[in-house]
Amino acid sequence: MSFFEGEIELVGTPEKAGSSREGQAIELIVIMDDLRTAAKARAGFAADQAPVVPNYYLDQSGHICQFVADTRAGNGLALAIYQGHRRNLDRLSLCLRLERPAGTAYSFAQIEALHRLLTELFARYKLDDSALVTLSTDAAGQVRVVPHLPPGPALNQVLGAGLDPAQELFVSLYSETFKPFGGVLKLDRAFPLHAAKFNLGAPVSRDEPPPITVDGRSFGLQVFARDTIFNEGTNYAAVQQLSALSTPGRDEIPTAGLARALLEATYRVSIKAAKTAGVPIKGRENLEPGWRFHQVAHNANYGPPLSGNYVSDDGKYAVQVFPGETLYTSMADQTDCTYLSTTDPVDPAYTVIWRETYKVARAAYDPNAPLHKKALELKLGTPFTGPYSVTLGGTAYTVQVWAFDTLYKGPDGQIKRMNDLPKPPSVQAWRPAPVAKPVPPTPLNPLPPVAPPSSPRPNDINWPPRPNFGILTDTGGAREKALGHIAYVRASGDFVKITNGWDKQNLIDVKLPQLLKLPGVKISSVTFHRLAAGQLQRLWAAWEAAGLLRLIKSFDGTFAARTIRLNPTVLSNHAYGTAFDINAKWNGLMRIAPFVGQEGSVRELVPLANAHGFYWGGHWNYDGKGASDGMHFEWAKPV
After folding, report:
1. Is residue 209 pLDDT above 90, yes or no?
2. What angle do CA 421, 425, 429 make, to 5 degrees?
């Protein structure tokens, strides 16, 4: 993770402090403990003729001070045996001192800051872990350069003393999980700890992208299969999740603010990580709020893109791969959206799309591979690798990393899940620190003040105004409490089969004589939920009394057992029998509803619908530009 501007405090005049390197390049980074408190150490380093002045000093709060510029040599390392010779280490090293009074351990913030500083220095001077050393005095009293594993303790001490074999295996497998896109696991850092604790799946990026700035505030982030996590400024332990910024009951892609900035950054860094890993990226790569693939992926929490939106090798399908699902559609109908997970294996698209999906894993698709078949059974999303062999803790395993878990098979031949293993104490004990200044949920599409009744306004996308109520959602179980519980299994595409008899108990035929006055309609009743039936009848009677039936050119259905077209994880209100569609030909999904006076407009019908407790789909804003579902009306509250 890159540093924020001003994060490293420059103490004194670092460009003039220390001594000349006399032309020697930086070869080593020397880590030293300092037993003094931060106040005493800083005072000592700043004193005239101080015998010890490091390049950097990290106190227990994680604050970083620079006393000597990288271009100059610090004081205090002097001579030590390095590569068989006595060398002046000050000239060829950067010295980092860490506050560690006797009897204390490194703090979490200190370790986090150290890792960030080392990452920056390694990249700047093209060094690797072999350059990280400390000093040790041998039996003969000679000071020698020895390898150093930051922040000092062995791995099992950092993670929690006395890991049992199952916990050690979890750590080893979690390290494998990071390799496809997340780099090297550092399980003493906030983001990996948080992701492990809350089962956020495999990382889709490293935790070292440049921070983003929103309204003058800086945020770091790391993308995982199930969510993007972030923190603000240097408050590294105050980890937050992007999903928590959504407004309950609203599915639109955020149009502005922190949520939008983080979502755009999620797309950028995930695509960059996939490219770096060798995934053959094709097609459009940026967030496109008006695209159905991106709407579905956002609403169903399928995660960030692992590919561009591109055409399959056979030229028949538009495809985009996400951690939770591969979405595709026939090139003949690019407004549609089909899910690989619900595609029948006999469908010609099945093998084609799985081959495209395995390109993310940089591996060949083998439908008969045991780990592949197990992952499909467990619904683990997209493969991040093919199966491969690795030795962990002296035992040989076959491993395959998937978006939502890592599968492994040991000598007993059983395929098991990493997340079924016990996690180390540091993961179990992890709790995000409080946010210094709580970040309120960013309204994805804030409700404007309720406007007084007004006459229809042609060519005005904001007429009619939104009502002072929202839709009935699943938040807190509100929809089920009002309408009952629907148990179902997936049928095909968006459609489901209700399995608990809910429909027979709650749906009734509702007389709507007004339907016979519409062009081409030959029915006078519809299937609707008994709770909303009376309001539906009163609404249509009100439309008729107001002379508005002339605006309704088609009636396009009520009850349909299916999920939301833009979110296959949530039942549509059509499945509950509380929604109906009209003028579908002119009010397509993801389009701006026709304005007042234009053919097919339903806007003049909306104020009466709101008055009778119905919400209009034209008030959704899917792309920030007014794209909506103008055909759709749904019951929202009793009146």
Report:
1. no
2. 115
What residues contact residue 58 under an 8 Å CB cut-off, 6+ apart? 64, 65, 96, 97, 98, 99, 110, 113, 114, 117
Of 165-169, 223-227, 543-547, which one has max mean pLDDT? 223-227
Give the 3-state secondary structure of residue 575: coil
Give the per-residue SS3 of 472-519: CCCHHHHHHHHHCCCCEEECCCCEEEECCCHHHHHEEEEECHHHHHCC
Q: For residue 116, give the nearest of 240, 209, 227, 229 by alpha carbon.
A: 209
Higher pLDDT, 620 or 631: 631
Q: Which residues are within 8 A (CB) of 566 and not within 5 positions of it... i.e. 6 or more apart?
A: 251, 292, 295, 296, 299, 589, 622
> Which pLDDT value is given to residue 160?
44
In this prediction, residue 250 carries a pLDDT of 56
What are the beta bridge partners of residue 231? 220
Phi, psi of 194 (to 5 degrees): -65, -45
- Calculate mean pLDDT across residues 105-131: 84
- Domain at 8-152: CATH code: 3.40.80.10
pLDDT > 70 in the chain, percent: 93
Average pLDDT of the chain to the nearest whole number: 88
Per-residue tokens: 501: 């008899």
C-alpha distance across the termini of the chain, in Å:
53
Cα distance between residue 296 and residue 302, in whole Å? 8
Rounded to the nearest angstrom, the gap between the alpha carbon of residue 459 and the centroid of all alpha carbons in its chain is 38
Least confident span in 13-17, 94-98, 279-283, 578-582 = 279-283
Q: Determine the residue type at 558.
A: T
Map out the domains of the chain as residue ranges: 8-152, 170-360+422-428, 475-635
Rg (CA), the chain: 30
Listing DSSP states for 351-364 in one string gives HHHHHHHHTTTTS-
Give the CATH number of domain 475-635; options: 2.60.120, 1.10.533, 2.40.50, 3.30.1380: 3.30.1380
* Among 569, 401, 412, 576, residue whose Cα is nearest residue 483: 576
Q: pLDDT tens across 442-499, in order?
A: 444 444 444 444 678 888 999 999 999 989 888 888 899 999 999 999 888 889 999 9
The C-alpha atoms of residue 114 and residue 95 are separated, in whole angstroms, by 12
Could you read off the pLDDT of 549-590 as tens digits, one per residue?
Answer: 999 999 999 999 999 888 888 999 999 999 999 999 999 988
Contact 484, 506 (CB under 8 A): yes
Q: What is the C-alpha to C-alpha distance for residues 1 and 70, in angstroms, rounded to an integer?
A: 20
